[in-house]
Write a structure and sequence with these properties.
The structure is a single chain. Strands 1-2 form a two-stranded parallel ribbon. It has 15 helices and two strands. The chain is mainly α. The protein is globular. The chain starts with a helix and ends with a helix. The chain is 69% helix and 1% strand. Keywords: Membrane, Transmembrane, Transmembrane helix.
């Protein structure tokens, strides 16, 4: 997986350097077909690497802790918080530092630096090999997909869906229970998709709002629009230590549970914060449109609305807090509630929430844009944001988030945790 990232940055570096003299992206020379092919190959290596790295890497890290040891169980729960903390550091550096180097020094140098970082990370990962806990595979072990498929087939052939105690074959009973354990996670998974839709707006519509605002700071220095995207990771970096070191112990004393909140309670609180963030975004966008009308800027698509970028800080910060609660909570939930042999598949199920949520967001925006433009108007997502209505879309997302929250609370209230989580709570 690290090799995939490294190959992506290496290929992109070479392609960028060869596409124009000295990596000058403003050169008028057209890239060759080979360079275009290399560029797209490097892009497709990103999801390939992420698909392997995130589920398998996080599952491998969590497997380093002994679930039967009380202190290690608590440390494993903390791992998910600090894993996300480290991801936020990487995003912050990429947005604030790498983007600046690419725009002001050269894209080839920027990608080359990323390639060097990935190679160093790979070397560090390999250096820890002697200290890793490597579990011997179970005799006759099969891939997670094959195991899950076999369990589903056994369950489908069973005469009793809900009871397996009467089975004479213990292996059949175990596989049937395993399949049921996975299937009961699917309603929770489906109830979280609306969160993935809201999550997708951080890198898209939030950024478009920021482009129209007054981004001047000290001494008249203007922030680039991409710099606003560091506000979310910055809030994550601030909130993770507060949650892990202060809130969890305090909630633990109040509830009598080491983790403070159950996993689904944590996810639910994050959904509430996310819904509140979308409501705040709708109110801020309404204020921005009103300011544009007051200053006669409705028809000036490139105008800077006399409204400070600081108005966007609350919605970015609240989404960051929501991520720490919901995203990290879902990671641990799908890892903890999956059978041991399927935990990497469980984390892949979590990551699909964000991926499918992004697809739903794109489809929803395309549909709404087509409908709202049908009468000849500008539509909710007009290129001129001063004539658009992102606020209406945010209110729609708030409604979807409220419906999602109601469904989630109903499902969570009847969910029964497996023995792994029960041991964690005692």
């Amino acid at each position: 997986c690290v090799q995939g990232y490294g190959m992506m940055t290496l290929v992109t570096t070479l392609q960028t350097q060869r596409s124009s003299p000295a990596g000058d992206i403003h050169s008028s020379s057209r890239p060759s077909s080979l360079q275009v092919a290399l560029f797209y190959a490097s892009l497709y290596l990103i999801p390939l690497a992420q698909g392997a790295d995130k589920p398998c890497g996080l599952a491998f890290a969590a497997d380093q802790f002994d679930a039967d040891h009380p202190k290690e169980r608590a440390s494993r729960s903390s791992l998910f918080n600090w894993w996300y903390f480290s991801m936020a550091i990487g995003i912050s550096v990429a947005v604030a530092v790498v983007s600046y180097i690419q725009e002001n020094v050269g894209w080839g140098i920027g990608f080359g630096m990323l390639c060097a970082i990935m190679l160093c990370a790979f070397a560090v990962f390999l250096s820890g090999t002697p200290t890793y806990r490597l579990y011997a595979p179970t005799p006759g072990a099969e891939s997670p997909f094959a195991r899950l498929g076999r369990s589903l087939v056994v369950l489908g052939r069973s005469s009793s869906f809900f009871h397996t105690k009467g089975y004479q074959d213990e292996d059949v009973a175990a596989k049937s229970e395993e399949a049921r354990g996975v299937l009961r996670l699917l309603p929770i998974w489906a109830a979280c998709l609306a969160y993935g839709v809201a999550y997708a707006q951080i890198m898209t519509l939030f950024n478009k709002q920021g482009r129209t605002l007054d981004r001047r700071i000290f001494g008249g220095l203007e922030l680039p629009p991409a710099a606003l995207q560091t506000l979310g990771p910055a809030s994550i970096l601030l909130f993770v230590p507060i949650y892990d070191r202060l809130l969890v112990p305090a909630l633990g004393r109040a509830t009598g549970k080491p983790s403070g909140l159950t996993l689904l309670q944590r996810v639910g609180v994050g959904m509430v914060v996310s819904m509140s963030a979308v409501i705040v975004a709708a109110l801020v966008e309404g204020r921005r449109l009103e300011t544009a009308r007051e200053h006669g800027l409705v028809d000036d698509a490139g105008a800077t609305v006399p409204m400070s970028w600081a108005w966007l800080v609350p919605q970015y910060a609240m989404m960051g807090v929501a991520d720490v609660l919901t995203v990290v909570g879902l990671q641990e939930f799908f890892y903890d509630q999956m059978p041991r042999e399927l935990r990497s598949l469980g984390l892949a199920l979590y990551f699909s929430v964000m991926g499918i949520g992004g697809f739903i967001s794109s489809a929803l925006i395309s549909f709404i844009d087509r409908v709202t433009r049908s009468g000849g108007g500008d539509g909710w997502f007009a290129d001129n944001l001063n004539r658009a209505h992102l606020d209406y879309f945010y209110w729609l997302l708030a409604g979807l988030s409220a419906a999602e929250l109601g469904l989630f609370v109903w499902l969570a209230s009847s969910y029964t945790y497996n023995n792994n989580h029960k041991r964690l709570q005692h």
